[in-house]
Design a protein that fits this description.
about 80% helix, about 0% strand
């Protein structure tokens, strides 16, 4: 009887430890990180300078950083749309999302056809996106 009780208590302790370990490693809930216009515009300015200097590796890295900021901003707007309390607010967020997607799709097209050749249009499009960051 003692052995059975000891065995059960050991199994319970092991199970509790494994449950505690899995809950400790649970990743945090997905959160939207607000993007500041100044940070975004600084990255776009750095990207413009890298393209002008024909520094392709740095331009690619900076475009990736701009892309991350764009994704963060789009996520913020999607969360606002999800949490909207009125249809007016929701409709505004839907329209903003469509505009954001269209602008960044256009920017991606310019990047894929050549950042150096399309520098003016790419930067203008990214600046246009920056103007609508909330």
């Amino acid at each position: 009887m003692k052995r059975l009780f000891l065995l059960c208590s050991m199994l319970l302790a092991i199970a509790a430890a494994s449950v505690a370990q899995t809950t400790a490693h649970t990743p945090p809930l997905d959160q939207a990180t607000p993007v500041s216009k100044s940070e975004y515009m600084a990255r776009v300015h750095e990207l413009d300078a890298a393209i002008a200097a024909n520094n392709t590796p740095q331009a690619e890295m900076l475009f990736g950083a701009v892309n991350q900021l764009v994704n963060d901003e789009m996520k913020v707007v999607r969360y606002k749309m999800r949490d909207a309390t009125s249809t007016t607010e929701r409709d505004r967020c839907v329209a903003l999302t469509k505009t954001q997607r269209a602008l960044f799709s256009k920017a991606m097209g310019y990047k894929q056809t050549g950042m150096t050749e399309n520098r003016t249009q790419l930067i203008a499009t990214l600046n246009e996106f920056g103007a609508i960051i909330e």
